[in-house]
Automatic annotation (TrEMBL):
This is Flavohemoglobin expression-modulating QEGLA motif protein. The lineage of its organism: Bacteria, Pseudomonadati, Pseudomonadota, Gammaproteobacteria, Alteromonadales. It holds the Pfam family MATCAP. The keyword Hydrolase applies. It comes from the Bacteria. InterPro entries: MATCAP. PANTHER family: CHROMOSOME UNDETERMINED SCAFFOLD_67, WHOLE GENOME SHOTGUN SEQUENCE, PTHR31817. Transmembrane segments: none annotated.
Length: 426
């Protein structure tokens, strides 16, 4: 166990880190405004939006990046001086300080090629490999895309109707999350300031007031935004010492989104179209890296049958922070990348008989790379077990059985199985 005085110093430094991080809002700093969208449609969707570095520079971040970066450097030195550079607590908080400094540099370079380079440093690249000789993330997305397209083209699994307006959706989702997340007061509210259909805060879920929802979509929001994003934030806030676990860095975003997608799938909330949308995001980022411009991605989405509004929104996700002819913001690869990383961690935990460790994924906003360090800090009494644990992590028997059987099935040759069973469907 760690000395009490050191734990109290940890709390003090952790709280300082939270204060420094609070004004950083990556998406607010890089999203395009409504006027850009309106002008694009006035041009009959034929011309790229006029976004350049000057466009971003005229938007107030609410802080001076160079000054805040210096403050993180000072805090990092204080962490090392007061806790010791070999202390695992110092190593964890020091990594967070370094990552936030990279975020600040990325925001300074909005509208330039360097923005993309720093985005790749933080979130990764679609052509990255998990292991040498294995498919890249982009290639994995293409492999997953084929069976999903077969399901969608056949139209045997139609989407649920979007017949719930935003006002009613707030009421329904509020009832759901407050029933399944007892003890956490989650506020569901309307918002006109988000690009996506929904977004999670520390203790709230915001719904786009201009969007209609299906019940299936609300079920997904319950487990994705509620159980994972709000749940892990609240678990981080409940920590006695390492309170900075409530704040996510880009590397933790990858794990967060992976956990959320895995939860959608395990709880049978997800749909082929939902997964196809996540796959399309990787494909769009890859196409832009290979030379596609905004209008190209927009037209791709329209050709897939999406509405003009949805096509614009999805295309904009790829180019936010960049220009309409520049290299992409790579955050959208986080969903599938994170899913692969979390899924493999759970498989290895089952193989090693250490499934008891898995709830530590929920102690706050953590990265898979830090899982060993998180486990060490938990054993030392620095990190407490998560207070809110979703049902599929609370009773791990079902999860362990599902993944163990999946491992067994995955070892079978699909090509041979297809040859055996395909004639039954012809």
């Amino acid at each position: 166990m760690i000395d009490k005085a050191l734990l109290l110093k940890t709390r003090e430094l952790s709280d300082q880190l939270i204060v420094l991080q609070t004004p950083i809002r990556i998406l607010d700093a890089i999203n395009w405004d409504k006027q850009t969208k309106e002008e694009f449609f006035r041009q009959k969707c034929q011309k790229n939006p006029l976004i350049d570095r000057a466009y971003y520079q005229q938007r107030d971040l609410g802080f001076v990046p160079s000054e805040l970066r210096q403050a993180f450097s000072t805090l990092h030195r204080n962490i090392i001086n007061q806790l010791g550079q070999l202390n695992p607590i110092a190593q964890y908080m020091g990594k967070m300080c370094t990552e936030y400094k990279t975020v600040l540099s990325m925001l300074e370079y909005r509208g330039t090629p360097e923005f993309h380079d720093l985005s790749v440093e933080l979130f990764g690249h679609p052509k990255d490999l998990f292991h040498a000789g294995e498919p890249s993330l982009s290639e994995l997305a293409n492999m997953l895309d084929k069976p999903l397209k077969n399901l969608l083209v056949a139209d045997i699994l139609p989407d649920d109707p979007k017949n719930i307006d935003a006002v009613d959706a707030v009421r329904i989702l509020s009832e759901q999350v407050n029933a399944s997340m007892a003890g956490i007061n989650v506020e569901v509210m309307l918002s006109d300031g988000i690009v996506s259909d929904a977004a999670a805060g520390a203790n709230n879920i915001k719904l786009n007031q201009d969007v209609k929802f299906s019940q299936r979509e609300l079920d997904i929001l319950e487990v994705h935004e509620g159980w994972i994003h709000v749940g892990t934030t609240q678990n981080g806030l409940a920590q006695s010492y390492l309170t900075c676990l409530s704040k996510g860095t880009p590397s933790s975003t990858i794990t967060q989104e992976g956990l959320a997608v895995l939860t959608e799938i395990i709880t049978l909330k997800s749909t082929p179209r939902r997964l196809s949308k996540l796959v399309n995001r990787i494909q769009a980022v890859t196409k832009v890296i290979d030379g596609a411009e905004f209008v190209d991605i927009y037209r791709d989405y329209v050709a897939q049958g999406l509405s003009k509004d949805d096509s614009y929104t999805l295309a904009q996700r790829v180019f936010r922070g960049s220009t309409a002819t520049g290299l992409p913001f790579t955050k959208d690869i986080a969903y599938i990348k994170g899913f692969v990383l979390v899924y493999n961690l759970i498989r290895v935990a089952i193989q090693l008989g250490r499934i008891d460790r898995l709830p530590l994924l929920l102690v706050g906003k953590i990265s898979i790379d830090d899982f060993r360090l998180i486990s060490q800090l938990h054993d030392l009494g620095v990190i407490e077990s998560p207070q809110f644990v979703p049902p599929h992590f609370k009773d791990l028997r079902g999860l362990a059985t599902w993944l163990s059987f999946g491992r067994f099935i995955g070892d079978l040759s699909f090509e041979k199985l297809e040859n055996d069973y395909k004639p039954l469907f012809l």
